[in-house]
Amino acid sequence: MTPQAAKNKLRPFWNLLNNPTSQLDDMSQLLATCNMTLKEYNLSVKSLTSSSVILMKRDVKDCWVNNYNPHLLTAWNANMDIQYILDEYGCIMYMLSYISKPESEMSDYLKTIVKEMSPENETEREEIKGVLQAYSKHREVSAQESVARTCSLKMKSCSREVVFLQTGDNPLKMSLPLRALQNKPADSENVWMTGIPEKYRARPQTLEFEHMCLAEFASHYRIVYGKETEDCKRFRLLNNMGMIQKRTRGKPAIIRYARFSEKKDPENFYGRLLKLYLPHRSESSLKTEMFPTHQEFYKDACVRLPGAQEICAVTAIVTGCDDW
């Protein structure tokens, strides 16, 4: 039975339950009034959803009473609406639906603002400014957020810095500022800003850095700018990539990265492991003609790190770096 057919089948139930003049004592009377059997009723209810749902057994007169626990209700002494949590996804959706409840109204309001703006009289800059002003003036905030903003308190705080590392095959890049692009030749390909992976591959050619993986580099070192570069405790990167310094305040940074499924996307899954935990100078060294994929290179290849006497399996190197 399709969901629409189930709705049509159950419509008499809905009309009876919403009729204040109807007097129904039990389920059997309700079924008889709607000319339906209990089996047909259960089949129609099951057809309305594809997920698991718990239906509470109750009298017809109590159909509009929220789920409650008598002991908790006595202690709480307020309205209660308890729902069973059958899976993690249902729990997340239940909480987020309450957290983001005002956002749906805000979305409808912003759509109205955009429709009222005339494209002939408004520039793109003015349209964005109008949307921002409408959002800032009509957004609902909690009492806690209002106090935090009024008193200039921190909305969040962390004792350790968090660094995100892009490890996919098609990472997001930001272009150089327009003033920098205007000074470059028209056929120049050097139009992208450098990130941590590029600076890692330009690390100093010392034994300490040669055996260092990208994860350790990003966690233990930071990029320095301006007057900070005058300190003697800095390390200069190759190819004029700037300078770095070992983190001295607090603990090493927390690294975050995109996660891929080993079964659905094995190439990106093993590519992430190699880029994070195998010391390298270029991404082309993370797979070879003999091992053309990241998965084959990870499982079957062996490499010799600079300064090392023995050849070591890639799997052993990655596993050892992953444990630090």
From TrEMBL:
Superkingdom as given in the UniProt entry: Eukaryota
Protein name per UniProt: Uncharacterized protein
